[in-house]
Amino acid sequence: MYYRASSAPCTHNVSPSQRDQHLKTIVKYVDPDIFTVNEMGASPANYGFVRDFVLNSDGVTKYASALYSNNNSSSIVNMLYYNSEKLGLLGQTAIVSDKNGGNLVRVIDLYRLYYKDPKLDIGADTVTFVVAVAHLKAGNSSADALERSEAADALMDWLETGESENNVIVCGDFNLYTSSEPAYQKLINYSNVSERFFDPLNQSGSWSNNNAFAGIHTQSTHSSGSGCFSSGGLDDRFDFFLVSDEILNGTEGVSYVPGSYQAIGQDGSHFNQSVNSGTNSSVPANIAGALYNFSDHLPIFMRIGIELSDLHTAESLPLKGNLSYNNPVHDQLKLRLTYTSGSSMKVRLLDLTGKTVFTDNWMKGAVEKTINMETLPNGVYLVNVSIPNGETITKKIIKN
Q1: Are strands 128-135 and 168-173 parallel, antiparallel or unpaired?
Q2: Which H or E run includes 145?
Q3: In a 3-state reduction of DSSP, which class is residue 237?
């Protein structure tokens, strides 16, 4: 809600330092491993401030941030923070325009993350996933709905034509009033079935000002509006997680944990009321107060599961030998190959398009080699080791 924005079309009722404390209270209560935001003031200083003085405070040091992004010069931007003890950032990009080349109201930021499997250093494979953070056009006019639809269409087109990742989460403030809106339908009923998203709550209908959906509303935390806070109490479902089929069903190493999706502070009993009105049965009183004072949206939360590697020793090569290597890689990939059968090994390093970026023939025996990857882009690569009889082993590595 215009967090530390230098200019805003409204005024805040509390000081920036007070809002910092409210955000700190909420974050420490939830303790997220991934924290995505909308409506941060568009200054590069702000994303570092949240990382260094809100998240990493009171002895906490685990949080890292993505890079600042504001390609369309909006006054408010998205951001992603993550627990660097568990996760690494492989790269990020942004969708800045619709399919006709026109600028989106706000860019859609996409971040590719990987899980730091405890056995990465002995050659274990790991999983990667993409988190797309979107803040779609606000307002309930047909023109507003059209701009939301164009943004959703741009995301789906980008995923279909340029994104090889199967594990995808799209989240943010979608400003949707009903499941029949074109933007929502393009996300969950896209023409390419393999690219469709799924709503873990699976509650379609007219969400706005409808008591039947009181348990999933996320806006507004205030019954009476003032300054930047919207009025009306909790009666709109604007904020979402949608997941790819692979995450919904856990087929590619990342899975949605059933029943974990919730709006923090939503107890189902505050329809058209402030989140801290009377007793809130879902959170302590100080958390309800922080939610009330920080923003007019509730944060949403869900858990994802990660499939760990079952690797116990260095990967066995065909016949007699093994392979070990450092993973992830920063600049130098250090391979140790032990192979005692046949005459030689062919070692290749490939990117995910199948392009060979390194190749060499190594004689049998105990071989240690270093491959310089300093000039290669960050991302996922494949190490392929083959021997003359056609037997081969291929493993995934991550450069960051």
Answers
A1: parallel
A2: helix 142-162
A3: coil
The predicted-structure confidence for 114-166, as pLDDT tens digits, reads as follows 998 877 766 667 889 999 999 999 999 999 999 999 999 999 999 988 766 78
Does residue 160 contact residue 123 with C-beta atoms inside 8 Å?
Answer: no
Q: Nearest to residue 153, comparing CAs of 194, 190, 179? A: 190
Q: Do 292 and 23 meet the contact criterion of CB atoms below 8 Å apart?
A: no
Q: For residue 328, say if its preceding peptide bond is cis, omega within 30 degrees of 0.
A: yes
Tokens 């929502």, located at residue: 184
Task: Find the distance separating the first CA and the last CA of the chain, reported in whole Å.
Answer: 32
**What's the mean pLDDT in 292-309?**
94
**For residues 322 and 21, which has the higher predicted lDDT (pLDDT)?**
21
Between CA 234 and CA 55 the distance in angstroms is: 27
Distances (CA, A) of 219 to 10, 16, 205, 225, 231: 17, 21, 17, 12, 9
Q: Whole-prediction pTM value?
A: 0.81
Tokens of 298: 């509730």
* Token pair for 372: 């310089």
H or E element, residue 289: helix 285-294
Question: What domains lie within the chain, and their CATH numbers?
Answer: 16-306 (3.60.10.10), 315-399 (2.60.40.1930)
